[in-house]
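ok so I'm stuck.
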Amino acid sequence: MASQEIEALAGALARLPGLGPRSARRAVLWLVKRRESDLPRLLEALAVVQDLLVECDICGNVDTKNPCGICSDPRRDARSLCVVEEVSDLWALDRSKLFPGRYHVLGGRLSALDGVGPEDLAIGSLLARIDGKDDEGIGIDEVVLAMNATLEGQTTAHYIAERLEGRAVRITQLAHGLPVGGELDYLDEGTLAQALRARRPVG
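replied:
not stuck anymore, here's the structure
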């Protein structure tokens, strides 16, 4: 049996997404074998992240500055806004480098079973962004609803589309080439790229 300290480390790692108890133990063994070279670098990176990570006040992205690098990038098209459920979805889509605009993270999706309603998501701030203009007076022309292809994701997209009715914005969503039940963070860049290219009007 491993010591309590090693078991505690493995238990902490096992709480990370995608890591179970076995994977966590393998990670601990890897760190032990590289404690002279890689472990100090990992500890330093974790310390820096702990001190610097913040949530962007504009879009909800996680970055080391506020506003985040995407919101403060003048090369981004301020007229296009992509709405996603989670930060992981934002990162997955932005890796494709095909969406030139900015993002808005809802922080989840509507789910009656889990007791998640519109007031629990960043929908109010989304509507405020769409109704307003940025510092240069540029308003949003297109809203891309990039919800996951799950029942809750599509319910969330439908709700937002209804809330946007009557506003002078074009509402599109990712193509249904996305697998039903698929989550953006787990899709390859080619699939995401095709979904972005083939986005279509809502309604």
